[in-house]
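> forwarded from #structure-qc
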């Protein structure tokens, strides 16, 4: 009888362990997006959230917390309980640029758990179609001869486009003014309304370029765009400048391994879906999947590289 009871108890213990293993998530998940509604980060994150819901069997609520080129969301993310139920979009500015240019309530290298990278941007400089600037060189020449007259919209301070425009200003001795907004969609609105002269940013400008309302002068990320093969990159124009581009999901440090593995696997599956590929293509972005370890390595490498560039350009904090 004792043997039978022990066997039964052991069986119940094994059953209980099996029942609890792999149970994460047990409640809803919040995904904080570091930019305003309607932009590229928000649009892709909402599709991703829907796909994660299907895969994880839990509601994934998108919460917009724009500001600081994504650093507001990162700061909030670092302060959350490390249980996997509060994650956020970790982007280039917040991860590898702003930490070198301003004081932030987090340390990129110690305060986060890297889950997955799922995308990257194409970034460009656009002007209204009726602008006198037919080429990027035209814009630079006017800015040289008219200090302080050019204003350009950016989706927050400390973003890749902001740093790139500042590096260009330093190299060409330009005096132009950055006007930060809480996202790319707001930047587009500002350019449409004539409140700024130029926009430097992600492909929120794509519909206006395709319709002929905006003119795309240059690509500031590393390669020409498939959609606009004749538009030069900064390197094509003779500048040794290239804006980095990272879009991923992270959480506070010390997330449970089970949560990281399940989220990473679900994000990987999402990057293989038609739904996410469709929105990535629509926004002229790049699907770029990296698992947890590779995402962290990519951020760490870019953190060091961009830090050196920022300090060399005299733009460090």
């Amino acid at each position: 009888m004792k043997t039978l009871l022990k066997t039964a108890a052991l069986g119940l213990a094994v059953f209980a362990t099996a029942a609890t293993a792999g149970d994460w998530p047990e409640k809803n998940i919040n995904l904080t997006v570091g930019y305003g509604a309607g932009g590229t980060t928000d649009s892709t994150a909402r599709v991703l959230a829907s796909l994660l819901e299907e895969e994880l069997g839990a509601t994934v609520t998108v919460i917009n917390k724009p500001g600081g080129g994504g650093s507001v969301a990162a700061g909030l993310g670092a302060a959350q309980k490390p249980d996997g139920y509060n994650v956020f979009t970790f982007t280039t500015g917040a991860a590898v640029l702003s930490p070198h240019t301003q004081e932030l309530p987090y340390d990129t290298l110690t305060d986060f758990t890297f889950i997955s990278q799922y995308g990257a941007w194409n970034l460009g400089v656009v002007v209204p179609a009726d602008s006198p600037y037919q080429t990027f060189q035209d814009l630079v020449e006017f800015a040289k001869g008219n200090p302080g007259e050019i204003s350009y919209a950016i989706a927050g301070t400390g973003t890749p486009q902001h740093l790139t425009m500042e590096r260009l200003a330093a190299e060409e001795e330009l005096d132009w003014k950055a006007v930060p907004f809480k996202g790319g969609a707001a930047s587009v609105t500002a350019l449409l309304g004539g409140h700024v002269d130029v926009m430097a940013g992600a492909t929120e400008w794509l519909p206006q370029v395709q319709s002929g309302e905006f003119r795309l002068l240059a690509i500031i990320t590393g390669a020409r765009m498939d959609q606009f093969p004749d538009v030069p990159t900064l390197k094509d124009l003779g500048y040794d400048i290239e804006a980095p581009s990272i879009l991923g999901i992270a959480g506070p440090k010390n997330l449970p391994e089970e949560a990281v593995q399940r989220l990473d696997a679900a994000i990987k599956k999402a990057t293989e879906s038609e739904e996410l590929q469709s929105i990535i293509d629509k926004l002229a972005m790049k699907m770029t999947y990296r698992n947890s370890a590779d995402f962290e390595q990519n951020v760490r490498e870019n953190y060091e590289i961009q830090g050196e560039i920022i300090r060399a350009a005299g733009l460090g904090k």
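QC bot note: DSSP finds eleven helices and eleven strands in the chain. The radius of gyration is 22 Å.
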